[in-house]
Design goal:
It is a single chain. The chain is α+β, with helices and mostly antiparallel strands. The chain has two domains: 35 residues, no CATH class; 51 residues, no CATH class. The chain has four helices and two strands; from the N terminus they run ααββαα. The protein has a two-stranded antiparallel sheet. Strand 1 and strand 2 form a beta hairpin. It is elongated, with a radius of gyration of 19 Å.
Amino acid sequence: MNHARDKKLYGLATIGEKGQIVVPAEARRALRLKKGDKLLVFGLGDMIAFATPSNLEKMAGRLAERLSAIQGIIGKNQLPYANRGKRK
C-alpha cells in the first residue's frame, strides 16, 4: 500500500449536465484507471469517496485475515454484539 498516494490531492473535478464526473488525468495515471473501469461510490457524511471493487476486496481480505487479532484486542469479556444493551 502506498500511503503517500493515499493522501494526494489530484485536482478539481466538475459535475457535468448528465451528472458525470471526469477524474483528473494525474489521478487516473497514478491509480491505473482506464476507460470502462468501474468505481464504487461511497457517501461519507458530506464527502464522496471512490474505490475500485478490487481494492475494496483486498481491504476486506486484509480485515478478515486480522479478525482474530481484532477479536483478541476487543477481548472476550465483552458481550456479543447482538446482546449489547439487553438487560438480564
